[in-house]
């Protein structure tokens, strides 16, 4: 069942203008994320509606509500589906859309194990049934200095972690993407896969993993995730660079020691374990102070905007890093 909670850390409705085609109000009305709909496959609709006021009217209302005459735009769905990083399918932004469509995402199994009292395996259906789903509008900031605003559907990672009852030794959480070179051409070829040593892996501290902002996403724009976006489940950590948000997860390990992470292994000086969005700490090869926002219009008309500390979520997450030198722990 789909439950929509408005938490203070979400982008608020008055801060957003929805994609014209996205009638998210139906989501509230229909609440059609029936398990039946969810289990019909990767293109299933989680629920849609037709109550959204015309774009111009919404913009006027939003401007009034924020008092700034400005609003945050959702990135159109077509961009979210066609401009991707998923090196398992190739390094070109169009490769994931082109080559991931046949990825088998149902059946799927995710193991949650390690420093827990009760390890468990989730099946495809469990992803949609075991935890109440919420819609969250989050900013996504890639380390490559482009950004999107995405309406995710998912559940807090904390809900899943609590259900396996971590032991006192659980200090970190490690994640792994599916390893299947037959299905993932980038895993079969060093050149196509960008020189990564697969499987792709990521990690968080336990405090980061338990933070209410940290989401396991199973859908976006009211539909189950497309393969190129990391179906059937991916991590979303909105205050960190996008590479932390690992796709198509098959294992979640609670650990005593900090796990190795893919990009850190590949280039230690460029990609840290924390990878918090930070406009004051540049990538060695480019500035992180601004970003190209991918919204309406073509890619070249994308506007540049200032990058925000912790990607705009400082109020919610800065406490996690008190006393930590963010220049050293980039
Ligand atoms: N997960 C896996 N397994 N492989 C990847 O190459 N790329 C990361 C992240 N998760 C990646 C991944 C990067 S760099 C970004 S910016 C986001 O996915 C992009 O997510 P999107 O394509 O859905 O926008």
Automatic annotation (TrEMBL):
Binds 1 Mo-molybdopterin (Mo-MPT) cofactor per subunit. It is an enzyme of class 1 (oxidoreductase). One of its GO terms (molecular function) is oxidoreductase activity. Its EC number is 1.8.5.-. The chain crosses the membrane at residues 27-48. Gene3D superfamilies: Oxidoreductase, molybdopterin-binding domain. Its cofactor is Mo-molybdopterin. It comes from the Bacteria. It catalyses: L-methionyl-[protein] + a quinone + H2O = L-methionyl-(R)-S-oxide-[protein] + a quinol; L-methionyl-[protein] + a quinone + H2O = L-methionyl-(S)-S-oxide-[protein] + a quinol. Mo-molybdopterin binds at residues 84, 87-88, 142, 177, 229, 234, 245-247. Pfam families: Oxidored_molyb. InterPro entries: MsrP (IPR022867), OxRdtase_Mopterin-bd_dom (IPR000572), OxRdtase_Mopterin-bd_sf (IPR036374). Signal peptide: none annotated. Residues 105-263 form the Oxidoreductase molybdopterin-binding domain. Keywords: Membrane, Metal-binding, Molybdenum, Oxidoreductase, Signal, Transmembrane, Transmembrane helix. PANTHER family: PROTEIN-METHIONINE-SULFOXIDE REDUCTASE, PROTEIN-METHIONINE-SULFOXIDE REDUCTASE CATALYTIC SUBUNIT MSRP. Heterodimer of a catalytic subunit (MsrP) and a heme-binding subunit (MsrQ). Part of the MsrPQ system that repairs oxidized periplasmic proteins containing methionine sulfoxide residues (Met-O), using respiratory chain electrons. Thus protects these proteins from oxidative-stress damage caused by reactive species of oxygen and chlorine generated by the host defense mechanisms. MsrPQ is essential for the maintenance of envelope integrity under bleach stress, rescuing a wide series of structurally unrelated periplasmic proteins from methionine oxidation. Belongs to the MsrP family. This is Protein-methionine-sulfoxide reductase catalytic subunit MsrP. It comes from Vibrio stylophorae. The gene is msrP.
């Amino acid at each position: 069942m789909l439950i929509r909670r408005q938490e203070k850390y979400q982008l608020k409705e008055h801060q957003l203008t929805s994609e014209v085609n996205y009638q998210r109000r139906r989501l509230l009305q229909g609440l059609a994320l029936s398990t039946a709909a969810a289990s019909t496959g990767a293109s299933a609709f989680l629920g849609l509606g037709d109550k959204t006021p015309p774009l111009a009217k919404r913009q006027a209302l939003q401007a009034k509500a924020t008092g700034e005459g400005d609003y945050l735009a959702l990135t159109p769905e077509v961009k979210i589906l066609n401009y991707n990083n998923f090196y398992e399918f190739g390094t070109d932004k169009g490769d994931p859309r082109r080559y991931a469509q046949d990825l088998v995402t149902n059946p799927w199994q995710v193991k949650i194990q390690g420093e827990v009292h009760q390890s468990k395996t989730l099946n495809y259906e469990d992803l949609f049934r075991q935890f109440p789903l919420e819609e969250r509008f989050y900013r996504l900031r890639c380390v490559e200095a482009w950004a999107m605003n995405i309406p995710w559907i998912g559940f807090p990672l904390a809900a899943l972690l609590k259900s396996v009852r971590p032991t006192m030794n659980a200090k970190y959480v490690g994640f792994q993407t599916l390893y299947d070179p037959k299905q993932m051409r980038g895993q079969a070829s060093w050149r196509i896969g960008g020189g990564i040593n697969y499987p792709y892996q990521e990690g968080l501290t336990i405090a980061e993993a338990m933070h209410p902002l940290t989401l396991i996403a199973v859908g976006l724009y009211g539909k189950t995730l497309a393969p190129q976006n990391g179906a059937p489940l991916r991590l979303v950590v909105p205050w960190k660079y996008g590479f932390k948000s690992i796709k198509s997860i098959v294992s979640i390990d609670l650990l005593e020691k900090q796990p190795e992470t893919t990009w850190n292994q590949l280039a230690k000086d460029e990609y840290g374990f924390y990878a918090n969005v930070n406009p004051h700490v540049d990538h060695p090869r480019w500035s992180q102070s601004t970003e190209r926002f991918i919204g309406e219009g073509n890619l070249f008309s994308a506007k540049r905007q200032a990058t925000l500390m912790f990607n705009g979520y400082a109020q919610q997450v800065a406490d996690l890093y008190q006393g930590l030198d963010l220049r050293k722990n980039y």
